[in-house]
């Protein structure tokens, strides 16, 4: 039923206009005299057919056509219709049906009021001796319009009202039927969405429970690994340097994995929007990790006093630096020299990253991979623009240089020393596991006492606190 109504809503009015016009032509075929052009009902029939055809698309134009026809006859511009032509006015009520079906509420009210006025004018012209004198529908009174209206006015008006009311009722019923179908579909859609939301809620609750359990297990295990590795390293000073380096790498990796796991697990959601994002203070650990693994020879420096940046700007800068280091490793190979400088002295933070261009042997080994355009460079440009700054990148002599500028607002009055202390405190708070339990905390405190407080705050175990690391 709905597909049929959809077709009728779009093409029903033109089809009704064609049928209306053809039926009148067939009915009056033997009474048109010399033909259609000389027939007195040609203009009213054509006008009413056009009014029906445009009732859905242009309801006010439909009403204007009907009003124009009636006013034209009222002022004798259009010849009055004969006795068998007055039923052409029913086309106005057919147009009313389509308007009440498809038009908005305000347009419906205008159409209903206009048709009530049309009925009054039609009744006047059908009964007045100046236009038709009843045109054979009623017996003439020969006593003027007042007596004629008194005897026959209510009868003719009632006939027109019944026809107009019937057509309008059909249009309103179709509109109510469509609205009822829309309400049923909306109800079914709401029920479906409610069921899906309930399922998603159950899944989210289960995911949260699993994440909490996994967080507890990982926090306990990784904290123990880090504590044991640090304790063994500080209590075994006479061990070979390779063993001590391995223990240090184990401790650093455990802490890094603990922080990363905590970020991922605490932000487990379908959209991932609430997952904690990296900050500018995480650039230091990233650089140190590259150095210790022997991947890159990174030289990090800074000038000026660090300024607090927004969270979005910090994420953008971290990702840009990460992409620069990754590209230097991918195109230059292991051991590539990279210079990373943070300049806080201007109206914004300027970050310069310079890496050695790959040699001819490296280009040949890459097999032309450099020529392929990836997503890294466009991604860095987009991140810089979203953070309110700009970025330039390209070869500069024997180096590939990336310069990014991120403006910041009012400078903070805190000294550089105070900011470093805040960074140190923040890193220590992040490293300490939230759900490791009282036993883990006691175990860490014992190792701190044995090592002289070097477990968490030691420069060797907290690379991001070394000199040159930008404050967050």
Describe, in plain words, how this protein is organized in 3D.
The chain is an alpha+beta fold and 472 residues long. Helices cover 61% and strands 9% of the residues. It is built from 13 helices and 5 strands. A 5-stranded mixed sheet has the order 1-2-3-5-4, with helices on one face. Helix 6 (145-235) packs across helix 13. The longest helix has 91 residues, at 145-235. Mean pLDDT is 77; it is low at 361-373 and 412-472.
Task: Tell me the helix content.
Answer: 55-70%
- Mean pLDDT comes to 77
Order of helices and strands: HHHHHHHHEHEEHHEEHH
Q: Report, as a whole number of angstroms, the end-to-end distance.
A: 64 Å
The Cα radius of gyration reads 43 Å
Catalogue the unreliable spans: 361-373, 412-472
Beta strands, count = 5
User: What would you call the structural class?
Assistant: alpha+beta
Task: Write out the strand line-up for the largest beta sheet, numbering strands in chain order.
Answer: 1-2-3-5-4
Give the overall silhouette: elongated
Largest sheet: 5 strands, mixed
Helical region count?
A: 13
Q: What share of residues are in beta strands?
A: 5-15%
């Amino acid at each position: 039923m709905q597909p049929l109504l959809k077709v009728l809503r779009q093409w029903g009015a033109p089809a009704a206009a064609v049928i209306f016009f053809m039926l009148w032509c067939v009915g009056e075929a033997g009474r048109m005299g010399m033909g259609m052009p000389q027939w007195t009902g040609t203009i009213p029939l054509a006008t009413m057919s056009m009014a029906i055809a445009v009732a859905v698309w242009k309801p006010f134009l439909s009403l204007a056509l009907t009003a124009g026809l009636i006013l034209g006859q009222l002022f004798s511009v259009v010849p009055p219709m004969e006795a068998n032509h007055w039923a052409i006015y029913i086309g106005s009520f057919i147009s009313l049906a389509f308007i009440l079906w498809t038009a908005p509420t305000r347009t419906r009210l205008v159409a209903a009021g206009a048709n009530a006025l049309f009925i009054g004018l039609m009744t006047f012209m059908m009964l007045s001796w100046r236009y038709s004198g009843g045109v054979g529908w009623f017996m003439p009174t020969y006593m003027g319009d007042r007596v004629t209206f008194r005897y026959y006015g209510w009868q003719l008006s009632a006939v027109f009202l019944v026809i107009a009311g019937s057509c309008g009722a059909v249009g309103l019923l179709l509109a109510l039927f469509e609205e009822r179908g829309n309400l049923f579909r909306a109800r079914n859609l709401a029920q479906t969405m409610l069921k899906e939301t309930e399922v998603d809620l159950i899944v989210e609750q289960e995911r949260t429970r699993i994440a909490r359990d996994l967080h507890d297990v990982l926090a306990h295990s990784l904290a123990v690994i880090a504590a044991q590795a640090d304790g063994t390293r500080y209590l075994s000073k006479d061990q070979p340097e390779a063993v001590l380096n391995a223990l240090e790498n184990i401790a650093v990796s455990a802490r890094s994995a603990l922080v990363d796991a905590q970020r991922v697990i605490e932000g487990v959601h379908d959209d991932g929007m609430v997952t904690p994002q990296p900050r500018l203070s995480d650039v230091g650990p990233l650089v140190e990790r590259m150095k210790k693994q022997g991947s890159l020879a990174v030289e990090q420096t800074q000038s000026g006093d660090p300024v607090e940046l927004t969270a979005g700007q910090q994420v953008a800068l971290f990702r840009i630096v990460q992409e620069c280091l990754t590209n230097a490793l991918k195109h230059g190979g292991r051991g590539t020299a990279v210079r990373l400088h943070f300049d806080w002295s201007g109206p914004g933070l300027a970050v310069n990253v310079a890496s050695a261009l790959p040699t001819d042997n490296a280009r040949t080994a890459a097999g032309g991979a450099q020529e392929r355009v990836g997503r890294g460079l466009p991604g860095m440009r987009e991140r810089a623009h979203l953070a309110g700054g700009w970025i330039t990148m390209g070869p500069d002599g024997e180096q590939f240089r990336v310069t990014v500028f991120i403006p910041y607002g009012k400078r903070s009055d805190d000294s550089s020393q105070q900011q470093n202390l805040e960074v140190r405190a923040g890193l220590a708070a992040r490293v300490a596991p939230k759900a490791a339990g009282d036993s883990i905390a006691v175990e860490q405190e014992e190792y701190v006492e044995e090592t002289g407080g070097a477990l968490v705050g030691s420069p060797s175990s907290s690379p991001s606190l070394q000199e040159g690391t930008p404050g967050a």
